Amino acid sequence: MNSRHGIRTPLTSLFCGVVLASVFSGCGREAAEPTILRRDSAGVEIVESLRPVWEEGENWTIDPHPIVDIGAPDGPPENQLYVVVGAARLPDGRIVVANRGTDEIFFYDSAGNFLDARGGEGGGPGEFWGIYRLWLFAADSILAYDDLERRVSVFNSDGDFIRSWNPRIPGAEASRLIAMSRLSDGSFLFGSRPDGWKGIRGASRDSLMFHRFDPEGVHLDSLGIFPWREYYRPTPVKVGDYASNNWVANLPFGLKTKVGPLRQGFYLARSESYEVEVYSPSGALLTIIRRPIPNRPVKEQDRRNLKADWLDSEPGGNQGVNRAWAKGSFGEWVQEMEFPEIMPAYGRIVPDLAGNLWIWEYSPPGNPVDRATVFDARGRMLGTVETPPFTGAFQIGEDYILAFDRDSLDVEHVQLFRIVK
Prior knowledge:
- This protein has helices at 300-311, 323-326, 329-336, and strands spanning 19-24, 34-41, 44-49, 61-62, 68-70, 84-89, 95-99, 104-108, 114-119, 131-137, 141-146, 151-156, 161-165, 178-182, 188-192, 202-213, 219-233, 238-239, 242-243, 249-250, 258-262, 265-269, 275-279, 285-290, 349-351, 357-360, 371-375, 381-386, 392-396, 400-406, 412-420.
- The relative contact order is 0.14.
- The chain is built from 3 helices and 31 strands.
- A 7-stranded mixed β-sheet has the order 1-2-3-24-23-22-21, with no helix packed on it. Strands 4, 5, 29, 30 and 31 form a 5-stranded antiparallel β-sheet that branches. A 5-stranded antiparallel β-sheet has the order 14-15-16-17-20, with no helix packed on it.
- By secondary structure, the chain is mainly beta.
- It is globular.
């Protein structure tokens, strides 16, 4: 197991006896200069990119000005977004947004003008108590997962409710499942905690059992247990009438596993080192994509900045920390808490519709991230792309990025940016 405070050991150090094969680029480089190293270990391909495939001037660029901007501080309710949890661009250019603040799905035209809303708060057909995830399924279906009702609702492209289903694990009590991804074969990945929530005090990393369901909600198989996130649970403190017995926070600069769909199945990125694993839909490890660069160290200024950010945050804000806590025992705990010595290897990861994988650099809270490395479907590092410093990306198409951001007034926006290739 990797140390929380030392150098995190790459998973591929477990592989040995590999056969080395070099892949050379013939586009203006010396023939003896390898671009990619491909290795095989027991049927698992390891693709290590030493330098980008793109030559100078071949990098993609992104127009920094959005061509569509949805979200405003005032005006009609449908333009005042609150807790956006998902968004997607339909084939005809319309944009759908899952707005957890109202438990609705908003529909906009290709220019960002509001068209209609579906859902709303409730437990009836097509309603939500806690909309959490939005997926596109084929060209004419929109799926939304309610993590409180533990229910997947299916709508057609016009927003009409079609049906719903509840994922259930055979032989297990109904539990809250974490919705993770919709795969290319039509199945869905959900996660469950194999031993429940143990609530270990201090710093730890929990794990999830991955489960696959078919489009009708039938459990297909369990794929195994995978590490999930590093968290910190403090010793219980009491502020006024509120006790912190169940309070848990993501560990600052902690590891987080990221999962998403690929044409081959799904990717799993543990963030311990710059590696991404590619699995088949049934859970067989196919490929490991690697880039040999070190993780950034956590500096003292990073620690001070993060502590200040936590102590200054509003309830439900960046870290969900109540100001009252900052004035009491919680503030003392934040000042004393320990930090890892190195940062995760990367930040957010988003696959695009062409099969490429976009991996953003990791950046401490408060610092914008505006640089992504693109890997193609074969695992080769194409090069880097400078991106606008948005908070996250929901969907990347052939010539666009559908992104999410908050402005200086904390107003949420869903924005469409143009990719120039």
